[in-house]
Amino acid sequence: MPMDEIDVAIHLEPMAEAIKELKEKTEFCLLSLNAKVDGIAQLTNERWHCVQQILDLLLERTKPRSNCVFCTVEDNKDQHPTGRCCKYPDAVSRAVQAAALGLCERCLQPKHVEDCGVSCPICTRNHNVLLCPNRGTQAVPMYKRRKVGYNILKYSHRLSSGSGVDTVVRTTLPYSPYFPFSRAARYPSVVYLLPKFPSYYWIINNRRHSHSGTYNPLRE
To answer: Residue 142's pLDDT is what?
Structure first.
């Protein structure tokens, strides 16, 4: 081999090794970069899927709904409630429509696996009262919880009987239209409990503080 070729081979060998090393590093960087890009793409897809679910849920909650579970929004133009549906007035048509819409026969909500615990108050069967065939022949017992509130009015009134007893008058009983005091008309739950001593008639006839400007409930 000529000397010139030997000199060229000596100079090219380090360059070939450097090129080979550079190629290996480039391939490693490409593999690492591809892994990072794939991870970013996967994370982006997962987040976009979550955002899409949230958007679908918002659209589902904000879309127009019918007041009647049997009628669509287009059919329920008068906005009638479920119990006053004229398109499905009887129990048979309502049961058929509930089955067609895939509703639970007990709570009239989309079918579910768990027991909703709803039963008919008329026949005690496992269906909604609107689907009961006996609904038109028997009155449904309606129980309304009445709000019972008692207005408490407290004040001290020292009697002029020498005993020095402070009597606290408060409301404890419901209002009666036949109660003799006119203040009860302004406080529908006010009933004055009068002391046993002195006597009831003494308090009625007594006009203490009537001219001094002090409030006296018996004055009214």
So the answer is: 41
The stretches of 80-182 forming alpha helices (DSSP H) are: 91-100
pLDDT at 42: 92
Burial 3-38 (b: 16+ CB within 10 A, else e): eeeeeeeeeeeeeeeeeeeeeeeeeeeeeeeeeeee
CA 51/CA 42 separation, integer angstroms: 14
Evaluate if pTM is beyond 0.90.
no
Residue ranges of the chain with per-residue pLDDT less than 50 = 139-198, 201-202, 207-220
Amino acid residing at 55: L
46 half-sphere exposure, CB direction, 13 A CA radius: 6
